[in-house]
Amino acid sequence: MDKVREFGVENGYDKLTTPFLEADDYTGWEMTAVAEHVLNALGAYRFATDKGYCYLIYRKIEEIGSYEKDDLWGAMRGTVTILPGVDLTEPTGEVWDALSEEPSEPPALY
Hints:
Layout: H1 2-11, H2 25-38, E1 43-49, E2 52-58
């Protein structure tokens, strides 16, 4: 982040030269975009914390491992076995309540 701070000093962007500042969501993304540009990053991500949001940039994307065509990947990898011949993209014919014409009653909680 030294490069980002130096960019702020050289260009008179005070927000980039202080380690902490009062900010809103717009400012968070603004600072993230500048850091992404200065550091030639590939993208950015934001996640919630107990005190607000944390903004990250990523400069390298690396595939970890590989997967078979019929294997789930990511968080689901290794948790589900799909039987041969099963197509998960094939329609089931099920009509969701949200898509039906008639409103339905919400389920009882107790």
